[in-house]
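Let us work through a complete example step by step.
Step 1: write down the sequence.
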Amino acid sequence: MNTSITSTARLLGAGLRALLVLTVVTGIVYPLVITGIAQGLFPGRANGSETEAADGRVVGSSLIGQAYNLPLKHGQETPEPDLKWFQGRPAGGLGSNSVNTQYDLILSGATNRSADNAELAQWVKDAKAAVVKDNSVPGYTVRPADVPADAVTSSGSGLDPDISPEYAELQVHRVAEKNGLPLARVEKLVDEHTEGRTLGFLGEPRVNVLELNVSLRELVADD
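Step 2: predict the structure and record it as tokens.
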């Protein structure tokens, strides 16, 4: 009996010691080492790829799209886009001409509707009409055929921070007109923020909307 109790106590002691060691190694040492390596080699990515304004204030992550909407009016449920800013892709494929600020990660993602789905087709049609209306200004009219796909559809995650150079260029006339800026200066701003394919062959050329709007704000402030 005593031998059995002693053996059991010895096994329990060994198990507790193993639990303690593994807890320290995997729960404290390993995370600290990985965090230290990440902070040393990739501090920007380790901290969430934060984007800062000219005053050093963090305004978001370069990896997640943001909204540029007007405040909700009394009784209004869907905000209107603030057209002085470049707009990103629709969120969740819901056909709006802006990106949702309050992302619910449980709901983020593609629409999961087939290409011939009538509701999806209507969303795209409505979104295209909004893009044409919002970006047509005196002296420049957007044709439906000019609207790129990323202007009326969401990404697979619904959180895409980038738009195509074509969509950014389509918005240039409107942004210049709303901010009282020379068209050529806004076009140059888009060119400066256009990134090519990763490693020269992966993905597509893109423009990060948050970073573009941060630079636009600085340009307006300096003008």
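Step 3: interpret the result. DSSP finds six helices and five strands in the chain.
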